[in-house]
Structures are given as structure tokens and as C-alpha cells.
Amino acid sequence: MTDRDHVDRHVERWLPILPTLDPDVEGAVTRIQFLTRHLRDVKERTLVGFDLHGHEYDTLHALAGRGGRAAPSDLARDLAMAPASVTARVDALLRRGFVRRIPSSTDRRRVDVELTEAGRAAWHGAMDVRGAEEHRLLAALTRPERRLLSDLLRRVVLRTEQPRD
User: Fold this and answer.
1) Cα 101 from Cα 78, distance rounded (Å)
2) Is residue 142 classed as helix, strand or coil in its secondary structure?
3) Half-sphere exposure of 24 (CA within 13 A, CB side)
4) How far apart are CA 161 and CA 165, in angstroms?
5) Pairing mode, if any, of strands 99-103 and 111-115?
6) pTM over 0.70
């Protein structure tokens, strides 16, 4: 490939200093870090545009991922949080009109959390902007290349999920 990016210059700068540096590992990891920062910045700017805080978006996202309705204990698990922390988040989203509490359909002693139309609209709007940027970036690749990239990254993720020896 003839196109060069700032990571190529970074690797070239470090190779004379660290002769054992693997340029492919350094290039891949540095590019992943750069893309992660870029997508995080896009998310933060998008949330500001929708008057959402990151934790609000994350909670709406978890709720949407459960069909728009869930038990607080399920949300706590999804968000890897203590149930009391989820209660505080739900209370704040309730005040903003993004969720409502409704009786559970499975246990009358329990209360579920449900997205309101306003909550769904805020979450969906932010998702659309973030998704558009993800598609813009990956449009640099053909469909088979995107599949290959996803498959290769899966192998790396599976390695991270294995215990270290």
C-alpha cells in the first residue's frame, strides 16, 4: 500500500530507537488506539448534541438492547454496576422523561423500567450519528475486507478472553 498515515511516521521514528520493535504489531495497536480515541470523541460530541451524559446514554442503550423494557437487576448486570447505582441512574432518567417504572409482567412485587418515546428518540438519535461515523470509516473497505477485519479482530479478542499463562 502506498498511502501513508501518521502511524507509519510514528513507527519509522521508533524503529531506530527500538530495533526489536515489530512494525506490524506497533502499527496495528497504534491504529486501534487512534480509532478508539476518534470514536470516543465522536460519541462525546454526539452526546453533547443530544444533551445526554455518557452514563445516561449507556443506560438507555442497555435498556434498548433488552427491547426497551427490563428489570433493574438485568440492567445492573448489563452495565456491570451495583443495583443501587442503577436505581440512581433510573431515577435521573425518570426525571428527564426518558424512562418510566411499570409493574413487572412476571412478578407483581417487582417493577420494571421501560423506555419512553423521548428516551427512545434520544438514544436512537445518538445511535444514528455514531453509526453513520462507523459506516463512514469502514466504507474505506470492501464488504469482504470488512468481514475479514471483523474475523481477524475476533481472533484477537478471543486471545484477550483467554487466561494468561
Assistant:
1) 18
2) coil
3) 0
4) 12
5) antiparallel
6) yes
Residues 6+ apart with CB under 8 A from 56: 89, 92, 93, 96, 98
Q: What is the CATH number of domain 52-139?
A: 1.10.10.10
Distance CA 77, CA 73 (A): 6
- Beta-strand (E) ranges in the chain? 69-70, 99-103, 111-115
**What gap in Å lies between CA 123 and CA 64, rounded to an integer?**
8
Q: pLDDT for 13-61, tens place per residue? A: 999 999 999 999 999 999 999 999 999 999 999 999 999 999 999 999 9
- pLDDT at position 165 is 77
pLDDT in tens, 49-94: 999 999 999 999 999 999 999 999 999 999 999 988 999 999 999 9
CB 68 within 8 A of CB 38: no
Q: Find, among 52, 26, 67, the residue nearest to 126 by Cα.
A: 52
Query: How far is 42 from 134, CA to CA, in rounded Å?
Result: 10
Q: Do the beta carbons of residue 136 and residue 85 sit within 8 Å?
A: no
